[in-house]
Inverse folding.
């Protein structure tokens, strides 16, 4: 029986110990090496904490992160990835919420980890992986683990200014991994080119498909995606056959005309998730690599990577919208208008039930209760349903079609951002009397309008200390008077007309 | 060069183009920024940048970008 990802991993380990599981530019982790280091790290972590506690993995993305993640799991704990480049203030909000038991870092992030001044034990990977694994200890921990234990917590933007920690269990990940591998025939011959950061759920398939199948995930440097000819050459050189990227990364390949330089026809499957994929860009991919299967997936972090999928098997016009498709196996999508189920064709809030669901936001019962609710259509037993805040409708073919957001959440480079979180920080800045953030859907620009007596440059520097790069407004605009509507709220509509060129998506 | 610098500065007010000499490796310019700059160059100078030239070496600093623009301008003349 498979209770945890470790059961999958060890089965694969017995089958192909020498094969590369994860490889970055400088290091390659075979399944055997990954197992050895993870069990050593597990022993070190278990020496510091009881099971079921958070282990912060605080370092830049590299293959060694996987040993840290699995090390946390061998100790019966769950991992929380935080990039070493994230602003310290935001990391502090995360550690305040988590109260981590252990922080795993590397030589580069060690000082930063100590500066967080948490009560956690700070261990470098080198020291944690150099101990001899205590097999008796690990076996004892293992016997008490169950499939509903947490595997990881990922932090996403929260409108109050405090990020939300999405909890995900082993069962949610093993269930999803089994489905995606069977559906697309992934096995030890599959290879992946990791694009998303590990603190972002778009990387979940890259991390767990190899453990289940014996596949290899390559981890190229981030700048390769900024200059797409480099990433295409990298894909071709390593004969990578599967890309699981956010649409922005696929679009950038097209925008920068990288196919003129290299066409990696080794690619057989392209899966994208995280934001809307424009058909205009997809069509360029299909023209250059016509034999690949393209799949549009949809799902919030709260539903373990994806809960719907749509395989592209017909031509789409450049201005057509791709359907979200149908629910993945073992989950159900329901559309609600308040507590009333929507009829086919009617727009409603997209709600999810099933194994893929998160077990709520870490240490945040009120925020959890607001969106993880009893399925109103189920009155006979307890069934948790997650309200995504996304709007959708079902078309005549039974496919779900995306229809925008209920609130001010936006997507930029695939990252989900609550404009409210940026506004909270703007308003907290010295000299700012009021602030409002707008999003231009055409240009992907975040425009921050503020009133007060602080220079734009000063404010920008302040935001850089508080927010990750992808949340920094593209433009800061000072206004003498913030327009208000009759309810005494900021008149967003008026600001939009004044400052946003592109019209919002329908 | 001054006009070019002014264009860049207006396009990306948050970037210090005047003295920044490591805009790529330092992570100051992300993929959206690079594409915006390419689009602005193409629109302003009426050139079309090849995929091959979307290379980190050409975007290290404003100086490097300007050299790239000049090369295209020479080709068209």
């Amino acid at each position: 029986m498979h209770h945890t990802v470790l059961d999958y991993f060890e089965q694969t380990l017995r089958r192909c110990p020498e094969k590369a599981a994860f490889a970055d530019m400088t290091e390659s982790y075979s399944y055997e090496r990954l197992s050895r280091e993870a069990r050593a790290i597990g022993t070190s972590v278990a020496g510091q904490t009881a099971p079921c506690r958070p282990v912060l993995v605080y370092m830049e993305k590299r293959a060694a992160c996987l040993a840290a993640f699995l090390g946390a799991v061998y100790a019966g704990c769950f991992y929380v990835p935080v990039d070493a480049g994230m602003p310290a203030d935001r990391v502090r909000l995360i550690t305040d919420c988590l109260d981590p038991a252990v922080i795993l870092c590397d030589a580069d992030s060690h000082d930063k980890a100590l500066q967080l001044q948490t009560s956690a034990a700070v261990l470098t990977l080198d020291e944690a992986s150099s101990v001899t694994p205590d097999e008796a200890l690990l076996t004892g921990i293992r016997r008490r683990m169950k499939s509903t234990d947490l595997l990881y917590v990922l932090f996403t933007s929260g409108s109050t200014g405090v990020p939300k920690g999405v909890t995900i269990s082993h069962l949610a990940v093993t269930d999803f991994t089994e489905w995606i591998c069977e559906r697309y025939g992934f096995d030890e011959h599959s290879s992946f080119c990791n694009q998303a950061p590990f603190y972002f759920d778009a990387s979940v398939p890259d991390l767990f498909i190899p453990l289940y199948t014996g596949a290899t995930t390559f981890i190229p440097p981030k700048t390769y995606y900024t200059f797409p000819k480099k990433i295409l050459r990298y894909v071709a050189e390593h004969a990578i056959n599967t890309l699981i990227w956010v649409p922005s990364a696929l679009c950038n390949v097209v925008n920068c005309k990288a196919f003129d330089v290299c066409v990696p026809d080794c690619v057989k499957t392209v899966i994208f998730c995280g934001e809307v994929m424009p058909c205009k860009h997809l069509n360029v991919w299909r023209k250059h690599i016509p034999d690949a299967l393209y799949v549009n997936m949809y799902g919030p972090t709260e539903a373990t990577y994806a809960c719907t999928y749509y395989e592209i098997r017909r031509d789409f016009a450049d201005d057509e919208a791709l359907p979200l498709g149908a629910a993945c196996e073992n989950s159900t999508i329901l559309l609600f208008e308040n507590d009333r189920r929507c009829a086919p064709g009617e727009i409603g809030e997209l709600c999810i039930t099933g194994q893929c669901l998160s077990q709520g936001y870490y240490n945040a019962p009120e925020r959890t209760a607001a969106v993880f609710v009893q399925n109103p259509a189920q009155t006979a037993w307890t069934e948790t349903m997650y309200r995504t805040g996304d709007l959708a409708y079902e078309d005549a073919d039974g496919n779900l079609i995306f229809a925008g957001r209920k609130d001010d959440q936006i997507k930029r480079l695939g990252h989900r951002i609550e404009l409210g979180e940026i506004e909270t920080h703007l308003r907290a800045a010295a000299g700012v009397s009021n602030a409002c953030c707008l999003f231009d859907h055409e240009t992907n620009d975040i425009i921050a309008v503020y009133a007060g007596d602080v220079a734009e440059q000063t404010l920008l520097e302040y935001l850089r200390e508080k927010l990750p790069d992808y949340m920094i407004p593209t433009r800061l605009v000072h206004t003498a008077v913030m327009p208000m509507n009759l309810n005494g709220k900021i008149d967003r509509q008026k600001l939009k007309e004044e400052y946003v060129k592109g019209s919002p998506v329908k | 060069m001054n006009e070019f610098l002014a264009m860049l500065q207006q396009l990306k007010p948050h970037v210090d183009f005047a003295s920044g000499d490591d805009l790529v490796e330092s992570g100051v310019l992300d993929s959206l920024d690079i594409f915006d700059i390419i689009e602005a160059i193409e629109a302003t100078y009426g050139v079309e940048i090849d995929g091959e030239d979307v290379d980190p070496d050409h975007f290290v600093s404003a100086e490097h970008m300007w050299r790239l623009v000049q090369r295209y301008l020479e080709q068209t003349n």
Q: What stands out?
A: Chain A touches chain B at residues 85, 222-223, 225-230, 248-249, 252, 255-261, 413, 444, 456, 460, 469-470, 472, 474-476 (CB under 8 Å). Chain A is about 30% helix and 25% strand. The radius of gyration of chain A is 23 Å.
